[in-house]
Amino acid sequence: MTTTGHSSIWFFIGILLTVYGAMIFCYGLYELATGHLANVVLANLHASVWWGGGMLILGLFYGIRFRPGRNG
User: Fold this and answer.
1) 3-state secondary structure of 12
2) Model confidence over 24-65: pLDDT tens digits?
3) How many helices and strands in the chain, by DSSP H and E?
4) How far is C-alpha 51 from the chain's CA centre?
5) Residues 17 and 59 sit within 8 Å (Cβ to Cβ)
6) DSSP line for 13-66
7) Are 10 and 62 in contact (CB under 8 A)?
8) Does residue 22 fall inside a structural domain?
9) How far are the Cα atoms of 9, 41, 42 from residue 51, in angstroms, in the given order?
10) Is residue 45 part of a domain?
11) Which domain range does residue 27 map to?
12) Which of 60, 39, 57 is nearest to 31 (CA)?
């Protein structure tokens, strides 16, 4: 039984993680560049940069690993 024409759900999750991760990461870099930090506890840890970067890396991994047309 072949699965031609079907895409893994993990590919679409990877795309979403990549898009959201890039948006959060870019906002975190914007905060660093302008110095306008959110008024939250531990804002100096720059969580948006860390979480955005992590989501971006994980999304790229899933997007590449489970891309359509990949053999195996």
Assistant:
1) helix
2) 999 999 999 998 887 888 888 999 999 999 999 999 999 999
3) 2, 0
4) 8
5) yes
6) HHHHHHHHHHHHHHHHHHHHHH----SSTTGGG-HHHHHHHHHHHHHHHHHHHT
7) yes
8) yes
9) 22, 16, 14
10) yes
11) 9-65
12) 39
Contact 28, 52 (CB under 8 A): yes
Cα gap 46→10, rounded to integer Å? 28
**54-64 per-position pLDDT tens digit:** 999 999 999 99
Q: Which residue has the tokens 């590449």?
A: 64
Q: Answer yes or no: is 3 within a domain.
A: no
Report the domain count for the chain: 1
How far apart are the C-alpha atoms of 67 and 32, rounded to whole Å? 33
Does residue 72 lie within any of the structural domains? no
Q: Is 25 within 8 Å of 53 (Cβ atoms)?
A: yes
